């Protein structure tokens, strides 16, 4: 994805004729970083002569650097109205609109800047605005129109990124090779080239190109290529470790190391990597990984915190953590509208614990019929028992015990179902089996 372009043009001193000492003083204040005082002088100059180009430009720049973006927008908007033929006003207006989160309007201003003076920075800024406005094809086309032999590697990389974002992967490849022939040290170009080749099914070629890139790229920038190689490799862990050691700010490497540990069932080993990734970049997927690790380690409070930070993808883990903290009503509310089998199984279990057996059965019945596992079946049977539907409970429990014959709770509930059906001898055998498997409830019932 293209990086946002942010640069204001400033014309000070020798670029324009200075008519009076007040303007020189305002520009000196601007150069010295005394922006508030510069604003007052520029405003005074405009009050006396609204046709001063230098004052319009200086006022807008000073306001921008003070962070007073809406005022800066107005200043540059006024500049383009008074001087519609000046490139600087349209370019700066576009930059301010980008910072204000109005990329569509920014693109209009920057398109006028390109028409007035087709500089590299104007084309890059226009493409950035179009990309942020969700118009990647137009961004790529804007850069393609502005491509000339003297364009920099940064320009060519932006064009390749825009083509990729617009779905024109194959068109990005010659641009990338041209860039790398011009400057083989651009790590981002090797990375994007390998990504495209892999997505085209050319994994081995992608790996070879990454090896070429690793020979050409020096310093921490190599870490990005090692990360890409790890994603394509059958043995990624050494590459991820090397990438993270080379560039500790590369949070994706630490995150993937943590995810591999988590996938292997080593939540404690995953935690340092995930925490390192989170410190570098508290991204939602990192928070989600931390929530899963803490939940497996029994730290429900930490799991709840990170699951909440993960946003909607973390809702189920947040519900699990709330349940583990004894907050069943909150967990149930979090599960409202959830469609996954695990989420529905937990929802059914909570409804059962809250004494809402009929609702629990309505949730757990379809899950059991879809092959939801022994625990789902055992909870469904418990709900049926609470509703005194003993015959249905027996059928469910027989199915559960066929799949999990050592599930003590199922034997115990089967004993209760058989007692409800007045089949005392069978009930006693089921309860003895439950007691032998460690069911304290069955042991207590048999002692009566």
TrEMBL record:
One of its GO terms (molecular function) is identical protein binding. The keyword Signal applies. Keywords: Repeat, Signal, TPR repeat. The keyword Signal applies. Pfam families: TPR_16 (PF13432), TPR_2 (PF07719), TPR_4 (PF07721), TPR_8 (PF13181). Residues 1-19 form the signal peptide. SUPFAM superfamilies: TPR-like. TPR repeats lie at residues 53-86, 87-120. InterPro entries: CellSynth/LPSAsmb/PSIAsmb, TPR-4, TPR-like_helical_dom_sf, TPR_2, TPR_rpt. This is Tetratricopeptide repeat protein. It comes from Thermus thermamylovorans.
């Amino acid at each position: 994805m293209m990086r946002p372009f942010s640069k204001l043009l400033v014309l000070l001193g020798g670029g324009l004729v200075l008519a009076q000492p007040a303007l020189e003083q305002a520009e000196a204040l601007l150069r010295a970083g005394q922006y508030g005082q510069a604003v007052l002088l520029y405003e005074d100059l405009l009050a006396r002569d609204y046709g001063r180009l230098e004052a319009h430009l200086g006022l807008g720049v000073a306001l921008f650097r003070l962070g007073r973006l809406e005022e800066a927008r107005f200043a540059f908007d006024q500049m383009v109205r008074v001087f519609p033929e000046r490139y600087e006003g349209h370019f700066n207006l576009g930059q301010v609109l980008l910072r204000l989160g109005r990329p569509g309007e920014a693109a209009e201003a920057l398109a006028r800047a390109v028409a007035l003076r087709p500089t590299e920075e104007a084309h890059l800024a226009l493409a950035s605005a179009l990309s942020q406005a969700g118009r990647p094809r137009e961004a790529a086309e804007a850069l393609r129109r502005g491509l000339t032999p003297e364009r920099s590697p940064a320009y060519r990389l932006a064009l390749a990124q825009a083509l990729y974002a617009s779905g024109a992967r194959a068109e990005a490849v010659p641009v990338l090779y041209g860039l790398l022939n011009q400057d083989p040290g651009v790590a981002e170009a090797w990375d994007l080239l390998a990504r495209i080749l892999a997505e085209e099914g050319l994994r081995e070629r992608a790996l070879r190109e990454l090896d070429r890139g690793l020979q050409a790229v020096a310093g921490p920038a190599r870490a990005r290529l090692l990360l890409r190689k790890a994603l394509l490799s059958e043995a990624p862990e050494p590459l991820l470790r090397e990438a993270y050691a080379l560039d500790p700010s590369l949070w994706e490497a630490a995150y993937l190391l943590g995810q591999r540990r988590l996938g292997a069932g080593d939540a404690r080993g995953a935690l340092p990597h995930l925490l390192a990734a989170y410190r570098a970049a508290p991204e939602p997927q990192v928070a989600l990984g931390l929530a899963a690790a803490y939940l497996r380690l029994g730290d429900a409070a930490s799991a709840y915190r990170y699951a909440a930070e993960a946003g909607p993808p973390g809702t189920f883990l947040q519900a699990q953590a709330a349940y583990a903290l004894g907050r069943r009503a909150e967990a149930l509310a979090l599960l409202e509208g959830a469609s996954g089998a695990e989420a529905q199984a937990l929802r059914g279990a909570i409804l059962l614990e809250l004494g809402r057996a009929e609702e629990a059965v309505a949730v757990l019945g379809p899950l059991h019929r879809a092959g939801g596992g022994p625990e789902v079946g055992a909870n469904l049977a418990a709900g049926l028992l609470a509703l005194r539907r003993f015959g249905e409970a027996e059928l469910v429990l027989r199915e559960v015990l066929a799949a999990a014959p050592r599930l003590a709770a199922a034997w115990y509930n089967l004993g209760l179902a058989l007692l409800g059906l007045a089949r005392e001898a069978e009930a006693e055998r089921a309860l003895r089996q439950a007691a032998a498997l460690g069911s304290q409830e069955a042991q207590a019932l048999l002692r009566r």
